[in-house]
UniProtKB/TrEMBL annotation:
Keyword Amino-acid biosynthesis included in the entry's annotation: no
Pfam families xref list: Ank_2, Ank_4
Record's keyword terms, sorted: ANK repeat, Repeat
SUPFAM superfamilies reported in the protein's UniProt record: Ankyrin repeat
Coiled-coil boundaries: none
This protein's name: Uncharacterized protein
Classification of source organism: Eukaryota, Fungi, Dikarya, Ascomycota, Pezizomycotina
Top-level taxon of the source organism: Eukaryota
ANK repeats, residue ranges: 1-26, 27-59, 60-92
Length: 130
């Protein structure tokens, strides 16, 4: 909960006390997934610097970039790309972060992903969801 709520001091304390930053909870969500869902860049940074796996998958094949894109967290997505997260990764449903941002009409995030030269999206390939 501290990761979602952006409690940086609590996260630091938990890490000092031996928190396994890669432990997963319900639906395969790690603290880093929860932090990206919450959109708190400081917590995301702390967790990554503490060894959180940026390539972990949640149930459904989501990566942390998909989690951030689902809530339109543009700054978090940019940071994750800079950290080496694959912005062209596909969910189990074949969606990229760009597809998710487009479907949710997160214009600023769509612009960032396009500027970062994301690969083909559903719109560009002609594929549509079933």
């Amino acid at each position: 909960m501290a990761a979602v709520a952006g409690h940086t001091n609590m996260i630091k304390l938990l890490i000092e006390q031996g928190l396994d930053v890669n432990a997963s909870r319900h639906q395969g969500l790690t603290a880093l997934f929860l932090a990206t869902l919450g959109g708190d860049l400081a917590v995301v940074d702390i967790l990554i610097q503490s060894g959180a796996d940026i390539h972990a998958l949640a149930d459904g094949g989501d990566t942390i970039i998909h989690a951030a894109a689902r809530f339109g967290h543009t700054k978090v997505v940019e940071f994750l790309i800079d950290q080496g997260v694959d912005m062209n990764a596909l969910t189990d449903d074949g969606l990229t972060a760009l597809d998710i941002a487009t479907e949710n009409e997160y214009t600023a995030l769509v612009e960032v992903l396009n500027r970062r030269q994301v690969g083909p999206s559903l719109a560009e390939t002609g594929n549509t969801e079933v």
